Amino acid sequence: MQDFPPSPDGYLDAVGGQPVLDSARSAGAIAQSQAWADPTRLHHAGRKAGILLDAARTSIAASLSSVSDDPISAEEVHFAPSTAIAARAAVHGHRGGLVAGRVETAMLLDLADEHPGSVLVDVDEFGCVDARAFAAALIGTRGALGCLQAANAEVGTTQPVSVIADRATRGGSAGLLVDAGQLIGRAPLPRGWTALIASARDWSGPAGVAILVVRRRARWQAPDQGGRGWIGGFPDIPAAVAAASALEYVLPRASAEADRAHGLIDRIRAAASRVPDVEVLGNPVDRLPHILTFSVLYSSGEAIVTEFDRRGFAVASGSACVAESQRPSHVLAAMGAFTGGNVRVSLPFGCTEATVDAFISELPLVAAHVRGDS
């Protein structure tokens, strides 16, 4: 089986995006020439577009079923232009509150703010919710819908989704919406969820397309504009086809690539731990294989990212100091961690050992340089 193509030298920001696979670009280009009509129309061009959209849904369902202990049908798969639209569609018609961890994405925390009676559950120093506390809040909040990320994209810590789902099901909750961002293509799906969202960018698919998977057992009210499996605007069928093609390529190679990434991250973790006044964040065991965040004390995240970029490495800041809001990371704050001087390394598919070796060599030099400037 062919391996992943090498990622760009020095690129260590998979969370921020990674190159679209050649097979996905080719599939999308072919679909672009054939699927330009409204797939809900009855004429020949519309039926052709509809067939391609249905095929993409079937492909996504088959691919996800290969990493799930509960098979997924094509009818349960929906496409959307973004995870934000997919998340809003997932909670459409839900009248009760939401139960979410304090390290959820701002997108899901905003949804919780919009639903009266929502409850936010605290996390430990690794960014993980307590399964019993989360399930108790979900069961104890009448009619609540759980919203929980499968893993945190900022520090890599995985959440006990399956344990919570088992407890919540026995307690009669409204269900569990799982944000699978960065998980698909890196680890199997958890069990017990009723709805799932993810972006195709996470598995080297195109930007501008996300998936919403809603199990038949869910008490879900589909948005009125959701026609033929596409929610939110006119269907971008070429993007859906490209996303399905990328997932077909990624998942058969995912386990081997995850093992390789895990080893590379372990090396970076060890190297970061040897630098004076550097704190490695997130769970060292229950984590995604390709993400690591560490804090370089007595420095700013923006300065570190800029210095790494000057030396040819693309990394991200674990805090929001480089964002327009200039607010500290709510994830790190919820963990009780230092919210400045943070660096997130996320390995794209096909990240080379040479890039990791070079990064490890530069890490202590960058830390010393930035502290000296400060």
Could you explain the architecture of this structure?
There is one protein chain. This protein is an alpha/beta fold. Helix content is 40%, strand content 12%. It has ten helices and ten strands. The strands form two sheets. A seven-stranded mixed β-sheet has the order 1-7-6-5-4-2-3, with helices on both faces. Strands 8-9-10 form a three-stranded antiparallel β-sheet. Strand 4 (145-149), helix 6 (161-171) and strand 5 (176-179) form a beta-alpha-beta unit. Helix 8 (301-310) crosses helix 10. The chain is globular. 51% of the residues are buried. The model is unreliable at 319-323 (pLDDT under 50).
> Would you count the extended β strands for me?
10
Strand content: 5-15%
What is the oligomer described by this structure?
single chain
Average pLDDT confidence is: 92
Shape: globular
Give the radius of gyration: 21 Å
| Secondary structural class | alpha/beta
Can you write the helix and strand succession as a string? Answer: HHEHEHEHEHEEEHEEHHEH
CATH topology call of the largest domain: Aspartate Aminotransferase, domain 2
H/I helix tally = 10
Give me the side-by-side strand order of the main sheet: 1-7-6-5-4-2-3
Largest sheet: 7 strands, mixed
The CATH class of the largest domain turns out to be Alpha Beta
